[in-house]
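Sequence, please.
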């Protein structure tokens, strides 16, 4: 069923629009897509967490609750289901999955914690995501560089999770995009691959680009029929044009929303980083003692 790709710009946060209009936004959007794919390629467990929005929300919520000192199994299920991205039953299944891959571990029958392995790869993921934010606002480089420090990591996660959960409770500005790419398995990664393949260096759509179903299937560990269904849904919802065997391009109507989707992600990263930036400022040098006369 065709879903609407129209969008009321006045209903969006001004920061998203401002980011989309920044001269460095195009390069930053491409960098975000490339970096997320790169960190997933480097760690198969992290790649599994990036499979869809539900997996990602579970991981991010676990990190957030731990930073708040409230990581219980029941609270994690509640906050995940409250996001609207997954049900309580699926949240329970994804919590078990996080334990299976060694990103979560039990402390007791009711409490759990993230593992050192998870905290290491998640801080690396955040650093990679913050790189495009520094392309729009270079003053955020100290946050990117210090994100592995416990105080900065916890403060950033707290802000990011609160903002994303608050956004999840509002009317979704991108419902068709969510259904097309964010919910299907590997859909987020497929969107990043399309972004890299089907746009130029300035993040403008190319007339056509080669997009191989078999290559997408192998890279993201899903079947070719599944990839074909994701691409067909993207075509039906006017995000993608099928121009011939393995040749595709972004639909001009849907690409406008894809741009704003990337602008939203980068804008949120920028806002969170600006708020934690004071934690990364070097301490003022101690004043030299004035010798007594």
């Amino acid at each position: 069923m065709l879903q609407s790709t129209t969008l009321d710009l006045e209903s969006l946060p001004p920061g998203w629009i401002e980011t989309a209009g920044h001269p460095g936004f195009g390069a930053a959007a491409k960098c975000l897509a490339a970096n997320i794919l790169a960190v997933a390629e480097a760690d198969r467990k992290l790649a599994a967490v990036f499979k869809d929005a539900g997996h990602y929300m579970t991981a991010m919520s676990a990190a957030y609750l731990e930073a708040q000192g409230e990581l219980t199994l029941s609270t994690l299920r509640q906050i995940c289901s409250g996001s609207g991205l997954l049900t309580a039953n699926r949240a329970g299944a994804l919590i078990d999955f996080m334990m299976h891959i060694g990103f979560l571990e039990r402390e007791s029958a009711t409490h759990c914690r993230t593992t050192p392995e998870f905290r290491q790869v998640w801080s690396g993921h955040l650093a990679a995501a913050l790189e495009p934010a520094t392309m729009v606002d270079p003053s955020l480089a100290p946050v990117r560089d210090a994100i592995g420090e416990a105080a900065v990591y916890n403060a950033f996660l707290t802000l990011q999770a609160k903002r994303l959960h608050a956004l999840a409770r509002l009317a979704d500005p991108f419902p068709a995009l969510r259904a097309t790419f964010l919910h299907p398995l590997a859909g987020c990664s497929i969107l990043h691959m399309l972004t890299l393949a089907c746009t130029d260096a300035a993040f403008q759509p190319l007339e056509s680009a080669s997009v191989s179903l078999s290559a997408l299937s192998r890279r993201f560990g899903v079947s070719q029929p599944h990839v074909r269904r994701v691409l067909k849904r993207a075509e039906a919802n006017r995000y993608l044009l099928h121009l011939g065997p393995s040749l595709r391009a972004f639909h001009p109507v849907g690409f406008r929303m894809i741009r704003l989707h990337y602008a939203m992600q980068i804008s949120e990263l920028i806002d969170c980083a600006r708020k934690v930036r004071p934690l990364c400022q070097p301490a003022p040098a101690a004043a030299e003692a004035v010798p007594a006369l």
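Residues 72 and 111 are 4 Å apart (CA to CA).
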